[in-house]
């Protein structure tokens, strides 16, 4: 699973990325998420080489990574 919408009851519903993805696997994707959000990720198993883009930008704070990927990735 690459993307999991979190139905947390908040107006700014959360999105969890890579909740079931092995940390050492590489992945590159662009997915449409709830609330007209588009999430694009390029991750090669190393957060130094990771890229995250969220459109619209104000939804970025609703997006978090599960497990081994840091939440403070470069945009």
What does this structure look like?
The structure is a single chain. By secondary structure, this protein is an all-beta fold. The protein has one domain (3-65). The protein has no helices and six strands. A hairpin with a 3-residue loop joins strand 3 and strand 4 (37-43). The two termini are 22 Å apart. The relative contact order is 0.26.
Helix-strand category: mainly beta
Number of helices: 0
Number of domains: 1
- Across the major sheet, the strand order is 1-2-6
Low-confidence stretches: none
Shape type: globular
Mean pLDDT: 83
Run of helices and strands: EEEEEE
The share of residues in extended strands comes to 35-45%
User: Can you summarize the main beta sheet?
Assistant: 3 strands, mixed
Per-chain topology:
Elements: E1 3-6, E2 14-17, E3 27-33, E4 37-43, E5 51-55, E6 63-65
Parallel strand pairs: 2-6
Antiparallel strand pairs: 1-2, 3-4, 4-5
Main features:
0% helix, single chain, 3-stranded mixed sheet, 3-stranded antiparallel sheet, mainly beta, 75 residues
Q: How do you describe this structure in short?
A:
The protein has 75 residues and is an all-beta fold. The chain is built from no helices and six strands.
